[in-house]
């Protein structure tokens, strides 16, 4: 199994780039894991308490579970991974079945932070967009999809998102094999990677 890590700051376009790659590859050959699936279960907290959690700090993610599930996939076993609601800000009761395939893409702002996870990747991509553009994309998404209001979104960005990006995300840029630009209305070029992965699949099969 080839494991590809995709990281970069919030709003840089990780999901967009991963979707592009998945669309270019046979669906039986690729599965995707998002770091977001592994936000810790905060079901024991009130909505008010959850809204004060720092969701950009590595401690907010259950990296132990994430690592053990990736290792299960590597061992050829399917996993039931947790599902997360951004609106409820906690884990949902349902799980998502993911089967092992030839290529596993793992994406998230902090996936290059824990050395044990970083070292599992055969290829590391860091997606890059201007900071102001990332902020604008994020605000639009927070308001339209994640149930945040404007004040909450601005406050979180100032107090948590930006300082945590500087402390935990930006320093991992240098460990990436490739920096992939994804500027405003200039979609990232991922054709080179799709071609490389297609030839890998042809040589080694889909599972
Ligand atoms: N090159 C681009 N130009 C304009 N908007 C983009 C571009 N890439 C992504 N977006 C938009 O920005 C938002 C955040 O992108 P997304 O892929 O979800 O980022 P991430 O997963 O890194 O947080 C989405 O609404 C997406 O459609
Ligand atoms: N309840 C939550 C949990 C996380 N976030 C934000 O999501 C960002 C990471 O996801 P991306 O798709 O943007 O990479 C992270 O910056 C958290 O602040 C949230 O808003 N609410």
TrEMBL record:
Gene Ontology annotations of biological process type: CTP salvage; UMP salvage
Residue ranges annotated for the Phosphoribulokinase/uridine kinase domain, each copy included: 3-183
Substrates-to-products reaction catalysed: uridine + ATP = UMP + ADP + H(+); cytidine + ATP = CMP + ADP + H(+)
UniProt keyword list: ATP-binding, Cytoplasm, Kinase, Nucleotide-binding, Transferase
Enzyme Commission identifier(s): 2.7.1.48
Main enzyme class: transferase
Pathway: Pyrimidine metabolism; UMP biosynthesis via salvage pathway; UMP from uridine: step 1/1; Pyrimidine metabolism; CTP biosynthesis via salvage pathway; CTP from cytidine: step 1/3
Highest taxon of source: Bacteria
Compartment(s) of residence: Cytoplasm
Sample GO molecular function, one term: cytidine kinase activity
InterPro entries, A to Z: P-loop_NTPase (IPR027417), PRK/URK (IPR006083), Uridine_kinase-like (IPR000764)
NCBIfam families linked: PRK05480.1, udk
Similarity comment: Belongs to the uridine kinase family.
Protein name according to UniProt: Uridine kinase
Species whose genome carries this gene: Aureicoccus marinus
């Amino acid at each position: 199994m080839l494991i590809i890590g995709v990281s970069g700051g919030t709003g840089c376009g990780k999901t967009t780039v991963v979707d592009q790659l998945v669309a270019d590859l046979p669906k039986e050959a690729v599965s995707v894991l998002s770091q977001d699936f592994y936000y810790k279960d905060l079901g024991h907290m009130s909505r008010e308490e959850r809204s004060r959690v720092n969701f950009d700090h590595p401690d907010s993610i259950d990296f132990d579970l994430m690592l053990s599930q990736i290792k299960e996939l590597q061992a050829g076993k399917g996993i039931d991974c947790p599902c997360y609601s951004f609106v409820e800000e906690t884990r949902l009761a349902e799980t998502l079945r993911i089967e092992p395939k030839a290529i596993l893409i793992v994406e998230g702002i902090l996936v290059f932070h824990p050395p044990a996870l970083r070292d599992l990747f055969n290829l590391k991509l860091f997606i890059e967009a201007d900071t102001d553009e990332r902020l604008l994309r994020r605000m639009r998404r927070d308001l339209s999809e994640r149930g945040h209001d404007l004040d909450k979104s601005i406050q979180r960005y100032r107090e948590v998102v930006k300082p945590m990006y500087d402390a935990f995300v930006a320093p991992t840029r240098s460990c990436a094999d490739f920096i992939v630009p994804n500027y405003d209305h200039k979609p990232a070029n991922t054709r080179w990677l799709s071609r490389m992965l297609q030839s890998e699949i042809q040589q080694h099969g889909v599972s």
